[in-house]
Write a structure and sequence with these properties.
With about 375 residues, the protein is mainly alpha-helical. The protein has 2 domains: about 210 residues; about 140 residues, no CATH class. It is built from 18 helices and 2 strands. A two-stranded antiparallel sheet has the order 1-2. A hairpin with a 3-residue loop joins strand 1 and strand 2. Helix 3 runs parallel beside helix 5 and helix 8 runs antiparallel to helix 16. The longest helix has 26 residues. The radius of gyration is 26 Å and the shape is elongated.
């Protein structure tokens, strides 16, 4: 009977998960010193490896505890009197290893909330005089950035969502974009609060652009393409990406502009501009031929920089890997004349960035939402 009760108690259920969360909270609240808290954090990686047996909100509870408790303690490590203390090193690495383990398990929203409090502290730890702590902070930052990017990528449509008609429309619009001076046209109009418009576009430039854009084929293709863009747009992407404060400079790598094609502001302007050019009259106050040419030019420029789910994830992941490698190489260079820690433990921290299973190109699902990656 005892074995039967034990077996029933271990069956995944809502009540069991509630009990697990309560037990986790009690464990942390009852800790009386850093050593007891460290024991909890030291067990987090093993707990996460068994995440297939844990209900999602138990993982989120662990994640909340890890991020909320680790922040103040890591900040205290920065203020520690003895910067080369083995105790300080062990504590910092233990907490950062827990962060590395839990981050890939969390969906986008908790990642947005939890990671913001860690960015500045990790930035300082990456420059720590203790090489072990500095390298661990580099790897932790990369894991957080990669996990965050991975969750955002789930909201971006895959290539498989593009129909044959969409492909034909995109090809036509790409050809049109090559006939227009997009950078010049996009920079010639300023729109403030949808009504106040300032234009420096010349009459000749407007006339030449309208001659190309007012074609029925172009307008029909633009209308269908904008419907696809609106259906693909997600508020989560624009709300959560790029993160602020920033892990990495995603803008410099072109990741942020590559999502302009699903920007609701750009879509709205282009939709009204298509209506304006098709109907030959204003669709709203402040609309004009200059504004229509500008808005469609912005749409076409966004089209040319588009990255779908697979390409977006691969570009972001490679950017994070390259940044991490350069940081590790620089750290090794700065400490080459001193005793340098064995890099193998820290290389294991980077495995989620390199492991094909973690890459959404070769995986069929995720522990959070299997259908999101199809």
């Amino acid at each position: 009977m005892a074995e039967g009760r034990a077996s029933v108690a271990m069956v995944p259920s809502h009540k069991r998960s509630q009990r697990d969360v309560a037990a986790l909270n009690w464990t942390l609240e009852s800790a009386t010193d850093y050593r007891e808290v460290e024991q909890f954090f030291d067990a987090v990686p093993a707990f996460c490896r068994q995440s297939g047996q844990n209900i999602d909100h138990v993982l989120r509870a662990v994640g909340s505890s890890v991020f909320s408790r680790s922040g103040p303690i890591l900040e205290e490590c920065l203020r520690h009197a003895d910067l080369q203390s083995p105790e300080r090193r062990c504590r910092a690495v233990t907490y950062m290893t827990a962060l590395q383990a839990i981050a890939p398990k969390l969906p986008a929203i908790p990642m947005k909330v939890f990671t913001l409090s860690s960015v500045d502290t990790l930035a300082a730890l990456r420059n720590d005089s203790d090489t072990t702590i500095a390298i661990s902070a580099m790897c932790t930052t990369a894991i957080l950035a990669s996990s965050y990017l991975f969750r955002i990528t789930e909201y971006i449509p895959p290539k498989s969502s593009v129909s044959d008609i969409d492909v034909a429309d995109v090809q036509l619009l790409m050809n049109i974009s090559e006939q227009l001076p997009l950078d010049e046209l996009c920079g010639s109009v300023t729109v403030q609060d949808y009504h106040t418009v300032t234009s420096t576009m010349s009459t000749d430039a407007t006339t030449a652009a309208l001659r190309i854009l007012r074609s029925d084929d172009v307008m029909d293709a633009a209308g269908r393409y904008l419907k696809f863009c609106r259906a693909s747009s997600s508020m989560e992407v624009r709300f959560f990406f790029p993160p602020n404060p920033k892990f990495y400079d995603f803008e410099s790598e072109g990741l942020t502009p590559s999502l302009d094609w699903i920007s609701l502001d750009i879509i709205y302007e282009a939709e009204n501009s298509v209506k304006y050019l098709q109907n030959g009259h204003n669709v709203a106050d402040g609309w004009s031929a200059d504004r229509a040419v500008w808005a469609i030019s912005v749409m076409l420029r966004a089209l040319r920089s588009t990255k779908m789910r697979e390409e977006f994830w691969n570009c972001g992941r490679l950017m994070i890997i390259n940044t991490l490698i350069s940081q590790l190489v620089q750290s090794h260079h700065d400490t080459r004349e001193h005793s340098t820690p064995n890099p193998r433990p820290y290389w294991r921290c980077c495995v989620p960035l390199l492991d094909p299973v973690y890459c959404m190109i070769t995986t069929v699902g995720s522990s959070q939402n299997p259908s999101a990656l199809n």
